Amino acid sequence: MPIQQSDVLYTAVATAEGGRDGRVATDDGRLDVVVNPPQAMGGSGAGTNPEQLFAAGYSACFQGALGVVARQEGADLTGSTVTAKVGLGKNGDGFGIIVEISADIPKVDRGTARSLIEKAHEVCPYSKATRGNITVTLV
């Protein structure tokens, strides 16, 4: 169910100039980065790119959701990591993205880790926002 504007607790604000070959900054100045297309796409690769920024946000958000689920389940997340791989490719409408989320949870067995990851995918705001729009693979 979508949230209502009255339910918003925080709003991040970022402004881009120059698109994929320019700059992105947040209104509070905490993030101010040069963006360039990666070398794999013919760019200079001198800066970051939208896919890296999305991967960073998704992995951090998913790790947070994993923490919520682990606390509910009494699971130990000590030393855990979440990695998001965001691929950009051509599709019928131009370009699209695909995501792979992998988690390393060393203090739990494989079955428990899989269950935690699947439950985190249900509650993670990024997962909710992308559900049905892009392919997300859980590893």
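The record above closes out task 2.4. Task 2.5 opens with a second protein, given below.
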Amino acid sequence: MSTKTLTAVIHKEDDMYVAECPEVGTVSQGYTVEEALANLKEATELYLEEFPIPNIDRVLMTTFEATVSA
């Protein structure tokens, strides 16, 4: 058994927080950031039991600005 460091992207939708792991594609939600992250961890661990993945390189995450019309 090994431990992998994965990325969680979290955003708020209405009264819930949605958490996504971009390396694996798992998504979960919760009423708090902590709950969403815990649910994402559980969903990702269950997913990886069925669909193991080889080594995952660290993801480069950044932001950018886009111009949109109002």
